[in-house]
Specification:
With 568 residues, this protein is an alpha+beta fold. The protein has a domain of 277 residues. Helices cover 35% and strands 15% of the residues. The chain has 20 helices and 19 strands. The strands form four sheets. Strands 1-18-17-13-12-9-8 form a seven-stranded antiparallel β-sheet. Strands 7-4-3-11-10-2-19 form a seven-stranded antiparallel β-sheet, with helices on one face. Strand 8 and strand 9 form a beta hairpin. Helix 3 packs parallel to helix 6. The protein is globular. The structure holds 6-diazenyl-5-OXO-L-norleucine (DON). The site of 6-diazenyl-5-OXO-L-norleucine has 14 residues, from loops.
Length: 568
């Protein structure tokens, strides 16, 4: 009885409850990722004495094999690391525009955006960053050798794995949409003799590439035969990447952006992701609001979040970009003063149409006084280890299977990340996101991202590790999971599984996933003037939280799509 009482007491104190029925529980570490093979790889490395960073590198390479739509060596991503000794870093291995990219490369002679040019084929490809990013993470924060952490991925590529239902489905879809991309269809679609669920999928070409990386590190990818084949395949489909671009690629160690929300410390990805700043600014806008009288997913709740999201995404469109090319007013955007100023015209009873929400201009920003210091396909995975180190990592080719260009003879796909740049000021990209000069294409620049690997801390210790895929919806997905935990006291698994909705300023509509908004709530919102648009399930959140009852870790794979968790 006493034990139960103290458990309940601890839970109430913690505010964040463990999952009622956690996906997985482990005393020594947990990995939550899209595929079982990736989870197995991560746990194998933890069991071999590796830390969370070693395991994350193993997971990432295993995803490149077992989740070819998004796991990659031909793309990029972000790794947010919180070490148990207090160090926190964000590793940016976002793709870069090739050296000869130009601002107008996706426009026709009359200055119009050419549909599809930034998403399919060679020109869509940014210089890949994953291999260099993983190497940097391992060198600085890992404890095992590259030889060791790459072993599981190479084994999976060589021996093959049974194709799960959803992967067979994706390959079928790829077969229909990748006409002309012969190498891609040869490898993933058996030239049209499609794989069935349960078939064994071996990738000897990819295994060869991984072995070259295992042996030679960055040199094995960014120069030599892999680099030459990459340039050749990219060129074949009209691309501009040169050997020099590959040699020049550099991952960057950045300082995570931080904020606090109702006593919890938030650590997230800085630019060139828009995710961390937009997330923290939205949490700041929500903080003065009282949730005790707001019903979860009531019209009032949805209206509040939609208004907050519109304001943050409006500012995203002009103020966020690659910080090495554009001066971001980061301190202001992260301040409570900005959130207060931004929400000054908020009225809980009415809609503010997106057309009357303007991105803040220089004059608006000058009015904000920061007082003192205030503290369809990407994949996210989370890892924690027995020492309390945590990795929150999101990685992507941008669209499912990226540009559709597979490097001939080497078995890996290239990203189509160039579409994350603003092809033309004010024109939406494939996620409907509007960009402007700040995110215009420039040689060597990193395109703005929405990926939001995040860690929530309490009293300096890791409490929750989370993130998501989903393009522009990533930031509002992470926001809702944090709010579900903090404002509605949901257990982690429920907070992850709960239906979600999304507003990104333009287009001016609330998009919502299956069963996220009831008919009568929809009616109330429509009466206020909101446009609603139902869409399929999105945003596979793969989260972990500290279990305050037993002291270990709870992993919550998102049940809405397909993901896995494994504990140690
Ligand atoms: O970096 C970004 O924001 C996008 N390239 C992410 C793409 C994505 O999440 C697609 N997935 N569903």
């Amino acid at each position: 009885m006493k034990f139960i009482q103290s458990v309940i007491f601890v839970m109430v104190l913690a505010n964040i409850l463990p999952a009622a029925q956690p996906g997985v529980y482990g005393n020594n570490g947990v990995v939550v990722a899209h595929t079982q093979q990736a989870c197995d790889a991560g746990i194998e490395i933890l069991q071999a004495g590796g830390n969370a960073v070693d395991a994350a590198v193993a997971v990432s390479y295993a995803l490149a094999v077992s989740h070819p739509q998004a796991g990659n060596i031909g793309g990029g991503g972000f790794m947010l690391i919180q070490m148990a000794d207090g160090q926190s870093v964000a590793i940016d291995f976002r793709e870069m525009a090739p050296g000869n990219a130009t601002r107008d490369m996706f426009l026709d002679d009359s200055g119009k955006v050419v549909p599809g040019k930034s998403v399919k084929g060679g020109l869509a490809v940014g210089v890949p960053g994953t291999v260099a990013g993983l190497q940097l993470a391992l060198d600085k924060y890992g404890s095992l050798s590259r030889q060791k952490v790459m072993k599981p991925a190479i084994r999976i590529a060589q021996r093959g794995f049974e194709i799960p239902y959803h992967l067979a489905y994706s390959f079928g879809w790829l077969n229909q949409s990748a006409a002309g991309f012969d190498e891609t269809r040869r490898i993933f679609c058996r030239n049209g003799e499609l794989y069935m669920p349960g078939d064994l999928f071996k990738q000897p070409d990819l295994a060869k590439t991984l072995k070259l990386i295992q042996k030679h590190g960055n040199v094995g990818f960014y120069s030599g035969e892999v680099a030459e084949a990459l340039v050749k395949s990219n060129l074949k489909y009209g691309g501009k990447i040169s050997l020099k671009d590959l040699e020049n690629y550099k991952p960057v160690i950045r300082k995570p952006v931080t904020g606090n929300y109702r006593g919890f410390e938030i650590l997230s990805m800085p630019p060139p992701s828009s995710g961390g700043i937009a997330l923290i600014s939205m949490l700041n806008m929500l903080e003065p609001m009282r949730f005790d009288s707001i019903g979860w997913h009531s019209a009032q709740h949805i209206q509040l979040l939609a208004e907050v999201e519109k304001r943050a995404y409006a500012d995203r469109s002009v103020w966020l970009a690659d910080p090495d090319y554009f001066d971001i007013p980061q301190e202001k955007l992260l301040s409570k003063a900005y959130a207060y100023y931004r929400m000054a015209d908020y009225d809980s009873l009415t809609i503010t149409p997106s057309d009357s929400i303007y991105p803040l201009n220089d004059k608006d920003l000058a009015k904000i006084q920061v007082l003192g210091h205030e503290s369809e396909e990407t994949t996210h995975f989370s890892v924690v280890d027995r020492w309390g180190n945590a990795v929150s990592m999101t990685t992507t080719l941008n669209w499912s299977f990226g540009s559709y260009v597979t490097v001939e003879g080497f078995g890996f796909l290239l990203n189509n990340e160039m579409d994350d740049f603003s092809s033309k000021p004010g024109e939406p990209n494939s996620f409907g996101l509007i960009g402007n000069d700040a995110n215009a294409i420039e040689p060597g620049k990193r395109m703005l991202s929405s990926m939001t690997p995040t860690i929530v801390m309490k009293d300096g210790k890791v409490l929750v590790v989370l993130g998501a895929p989903g393009g522009s919806t990533i930031i509002t997905t992470v926001l809702q999971v944090i709010s579900n935990l903090v404002d509605f006291g949901m257990p982690l698994q429920d907070a992850v599984n709960a239906p979600r909705f999304h507003h990104q300023w333009q287009p001016d509509m609330i998009q919502f996933g299956p069963r996220a908004i009831s008919k009568d709530t929809a009616n109330l919102l429509q009466q206020m003037g909101y446009q609603l648009s139902e869409r399929s399930a999105y945003g596979e959140v793969n989260a972990i939280s500290r279990d305050r009852v037993f002291g270990g870790w709870v992993g919550a794979p998102d049940y809405r799509i397909t993901s896995h968790g494994k504990a140690y």
